[in-house]
Amino acid sequence: MAQKPSIPKGTRDFSPEEVAKRNYIFETIKRQFKRFGFQPIETPSFENSSTLMGKYGDEGDRLIFKILNSGDFLRKADKDALDEKDSIKLTPSISEKALRYDLTVPFARYVVQHQNEIEFPFKRYQIQPVWRADRPQKGRFREFFQCDADVVGSKSLWQEVEFVQLYDSVFNGLGLEGVTIKINNRKVLSGFAEVIGEKDKLIDFTVALDKLDKIGEEGVKKEMREKGISEEAIKKLQPIFNLQGTFSDKIKGLKTILETSEIGRKGIEELEFIQNAIEEMPLKIAKLDLDVTLARGLNYYTGAIYEVAAPEAVKMGSIGGGGRYDDLTGIFGLKDMSGIGISFGLDRIYLVLEELDLFPETVTQNTKVLFINFGDKEAMYAMKAVEKLRNENIVAELYPDSAKMGKQMKYADKRDIPYVVLAGEEEMSQQKFTLKHMKSGEQSSLSLEELKQKLNS
């Protein structure tokens, strides 16, 4: 008995309609990337494990897909680890490569490797798939595309401002109203850790805080206790959870909370710079909001951090995110190369547009006219017309087989092809074509020139 085909959990096949809709999002994002001066690059789907491991925190490292060494991979395995069944110790000896977890760390590797060919500041965009060994659920997949834009080689806060504008331009192009661009600053988070007396537990603090929207305030506090953050420190955190109001209101609250923290005050200054610039150049469609609990648990962020929330009507996680990283290339040997980047979550954006019915009808338009096949002689006559129509950018096809008329008509109907052309002996003798509109049934006899005009109207 033949094996029933299947695909791994967290992966998907895409129909022609789905691919067309995905390409619409890709093209909209790419158009804005180009408008803002970003250049395209591509990197391999897998990297050396040493490039990826240790860059995303413990939780991120666990989600990296490892690739077994080729050949007899157990031959060089760590025998002690194998005997002890210690997978963590065993992995480095049987897996030297891994699928990329995101596009940012590979980009940092790219910058270091190609630094002598790059003109800094370097603005790049990259649209490629990434892989994470996550638990599949709505909007969360193990294989998905990221659409990234980064600038390296500049510490200017105007880059932060430009990325807010870039997000706004993309969502405006997609007609996606009600999007919120949340912003915070890792210096503010460092300030929080400082004023509560837990400076040494910054990573534990931020990882827990980043889960606020998933596990709630009490869940965050519980996780902090489990990580060894004192009860007294957690009590000092309460004003953070209570900050509300406008961007300016929250800034005022932050200034009070972080009064004694120099790094915290620096973070506030950077947030104020971005806020003032956006007030001078209002966004078209998105809203900018300060979220002081936004942490994005990736270790490499050092300044501004972004997360984009879908419209409230759609129950969905973030549809984009990013931030400033001042020392990411340093891990590969290139010091003092500040960068900032953002990412668009294509798959979640797709689900949001689908749920809100925001895909234009033209996105999924396919073949406009199908020529009915009556036999080889008629097919040659039809194919000459098909070629001329295609030269006019009209999507035309000939049904490949001289099957029964009903079968060919049913094919056109199933594929939503709006027109069919009948060209038999009578039409050929008159150098004409009978055009039929599939929905109305209306028919007309037209010359090739008239056919072109009709299909182009």
Automatic annotation (TrEMBL):
<dbReference type="GO" id="GO:0004821">
    <property type="term" value="F:histidine-tRNA ligase activity"/>
</dbReference>
<dbReference type="InterPro" id="IPR015807">
    <property type="entry name" value="His-tRNA-ligase"/>
</dbReference>
<dbReference type="Pfam" id="PF03129">
    <property type="entry name" value="HGTP_anticodon"/>
</dbReference>
<comment type="subunit">
    <text>Homodimer.</text>
</comment>
<dbReference type="InterPro" id="IPR004154">
    <property type="entry name" value="Anticodon-bd"/>
</dbReference>
<keyword id="KW-0067">ATP-binding</keyword>
<dbReference type="InterPro" id="IPR006195">
    <property type="entry name" value="aa-tRNA-synth_II"/>
</dbReference>
<keyword id="KW-0963">Cytoplasm</keyword>
<feature type="domain" description="Aminoacyl-transfer RNA synthetases class-II family profile">
    <location>
        <begin position="1"/>
        <end position="400"/>
    </location>
</feature>
<comment type="similarity">
    <text>Belongs to the class-II aminoacyl-tRNA synthetase family.</text>
</comment>
<dbReference type="Pfam" id="PF13393">
    <property type="entry name" value="tRNA-synt_His"/>
</dbReference>
<dbReference type="InterPro" id="IPR004516">
    <property type="entry name" value="HisRS/HisZ"/>
</dbReference>
<dbReference type="InterPro" id="IPR041715">
    <property type="entry name" value="HisRS-like_core"/>
</dbReference>
<keyword id="KW-0648">Protein biosynthesis</keyword>
<dbReference type="InterPro" id="IPR045864">
    <property type="entry name" value="aa-tRNA-synth_II/BPL/LPL"/>
</dbReference>
<dbReference type="InterPro" id="IPR036621">
    <property type="entry name" value="Anticodon-bd_dom_sf"/>
</dbReference>
<keyword id="KW-0547">Nucleotide-binding</keyword>
<dbReference type="InterPro" id="IPR033656">
    <property type="entry name" value="HisRS_anticodon"/>
</dbReference>
<keyword id="KW-0030">Aminoacyl-tRNA synthetase</keyword>
<keyword id="KW-0436">Ligase</keyword>
<protein>
    <recommendedName>
        <fullName>Histidine--tRNA ligase</fullName>
        <ecNumber>6.1.1.21</ecNumber>
    </recommendedName>
</protein>
